[in-house]
Amino acid sequence: MKKNWLWLLVNILAAVLFFAFIAQMISIGTLNGIAKQMTAEVGEWAGRWLILSLAVTPLLTVTRFKRLVTIRKSTGLWAFAYALLHLFSYSGRFDLNLQDALFDIFNHFEYWLGFVALVIMLPLALTSTNRAIKWLKKDWKRLHKGVYAVAVLVGLHVALVKEDYLVLIILLALLVARVPTLRQRLSKLKR
Ligand code: HEM
Question: Higher pLDDT residue, 96 or 120?
Fold first, then answer.
């Protein structure tokens, strides 16, 4: 499907916010400042984009609003980009020393969950092009099922970091909505 106003709106919003975060990081100046102020905010947005990308399929089933398809890929890619920025701002706590940041991640189970999610997101982002879809054929679908693991890991990461289970519940609900029998029921809602 061709790009449309919805695609444009989502991508402009995501890009403007992304560069606003970067500008804010630069203006804060001190690396410690970056970490404290930005990690939570950027992480929150990474979570929002992930939720939106996973919500596209169930929303499409219920509403049959076909334009939604065009934002599935971009919202997933923005989730990855924001998650990278989230890790970058976190490593600001260690003067951007990645080795120290990784050491801290492996000492905190809740951060480790987020890190594994980000590692799984990397091949998904790299193979999001039409060329990769053609090249990988059936393996593409198999590989992209990794997004379910990402959803569970991110949900647990947020639940443990914030002691708040809302994001985990939303992500699990979006996964459950993909179960074929439930999907059929959802599609009947519109009729
Ligand atoms: C790369 C490894 C990751 C590390 C080291 C990490 C680290 C952190 C830290 C330290 C916080 C607490 C921030 C604070 O309260 O100051 C946090 C919160 C959060 N992270 Fe991550 N994270 C990682 C990956 C991810 C990923 C992949 C996502 C989503 C795609 C994510 C989404 C979130 C969300 C939604 C919060 C809660 C923000 C809030 O509302 O307070 N994180 N993370």
Answer: 120
3-state secondary structure 70-88: HHHHHHHHHHHHHHHHHHH
The set of residues, in sequence order, having a beta carbon less than 8 Å from that of 113 and lying 6+ positions away, is 153, 154, 156, 157, 160
Q: Rounded to the nearest 5 degrees, what angle is found at the Cα of 134, between the Cα atoms of 6 and 73?
A: 25
- Residue 96 to residues 89, 118, 144, 169, 183: CA-CA distances in angstroms? 8, 18, 31, 33, 44
Question: Cβ(50) to ligand 1 under 6 A?
Answer: yes
> How does pLDDT run across 169-179, given as a tens digit for each residue?
999 999 999 88
Q: What mean pLDDT value characterizes the chain? A: 91
* pLDDT value at 70 more than 60: yes
Ligand 1 geometric centre to CA of 54 (Å): 18
Mean pLDDT of 70-79: 97
Is 81 near ligand 1, meaning CB less than 6 Å away?
no
Q: Which residue has its alpha carbon closest to ligand 1 atom 1?
A: 115
